[in-house]
Design goal:
CATH superfamily: P-loop containing nucleotide triphosphate hydrolases
Radius of gyration: 17 Å
CATH topology: Rossmann fold
CATH architecture: 3-Layer(aba) Sandwich
CATH class: Alpha Beta
Structural class: alpha/beta
Largest sheet: 5 strands, parallel
Oligomer: single chain
Number of helices: 10
Bound molecules: cytidine-5'-monophosphate
Strand content: 5-15%
Number of strands: 5
């Protein structure tokens, strides 16, 4: 890979894009950015300061202070932070500030895998590869439940499913950068696919693009 290489991965919450992004970044030796963490960091800062999530100027200040090298997944992965993140993510100015940081990250050699909601459509519209990863809401809720139970927690399937429905609605329905597949994205439905199979399918798509490029 002689130029800065970009793999854009988008999709709804719980579709498996995070794990897939990590596997691909390892395999192709690229940097990795989970852009969801940047929105979560903004929401977390507001929560920490007991500020309402619709305080746009505080959200902008928090967005400017986001340091991509200091995103603490352990703190930011809490379910409530994800919910709050989808509320601050509707503000165009907050998005503009974070998108600029994400683009700078993508430009750093040797390139990166970025996952989120608007990577192929807005952040990196010229990405070498665009993947749109989905799964049915039921499968995503089931995975989330298994994840919670695997660390000794308990949760109610119906509640998780309702949560996922609300988050999808907010992410797909917002006016600014709604979640949708880029016109040139490869669709990967992981409803009936284990992560290993999804990884192999993604690799086949990427290797095909790389082989064609080498020949050109
Ligand atoms: O992917 P994750 O669940 O961490 O994202 C949290 C929220 O951040 C999403 O529900 C979405 O509203 C927002 N987000 C976004 N654009 C991105 C990544 C995340 O709007 N590129």
């Amino acid at each position: 890979m002689t130029h800065v290489f970009t793999i854009a991965i988008d999709g709804p919450a719980g579709a498996g894009k995070g794990t897939l992004a990590r596997r691909l970044a390892d395999h192709y030796r690229l940097n990795l950015l989970d852009t969801g963490l940047t929105y979560r960091a903004v929401a977390y800062a507001l929560i920490q300061h007991a500020l309402p999530l619709d305080n746009v100027s505080a959200a902008e200040t928090a967005a400017r202070q986001v340091n991509l090298a200091k995103l603490d997944r352990a703190v930011l992965s809490a379910h409530a932070v994800g919910e709050a993140a989808s509320k601050v993510a509707v503000y165009p100015t907050v998005r503009r500030i974070l998108v600029e940081k994400q683009r700078d990250f993508a430009k750093t050699p040797p390139g990166a895998v970025l996952d989120g909601r608007d990577i192929g459509t807005v952040v990196c519209p010229d990405a070498d590869i665009k993947l749109y990863v989905t799964a049915s809401a039921e499968v995503r809720a089931q995975r989330r439940l298994a994840e919670i139970e695997s660390i000794g927690g308990t949760a109610d399937f119906t509640e998780i499913l309702a949560d996922i429905g609300r988050r999808d609605e907010r992410d797909m329905g917002r006016a600014n950068s709604p979640l949708k597949p880029a016109a040139d994205a490869h669709l990967l439905d992981t409803s009936e696919m284990a992560i290993e199979a999804a990884f192999l399918a993604a690799m086949a798509i990427i290797d095909d693009v790389l082989a064609k490029r080498d020949k050109a």
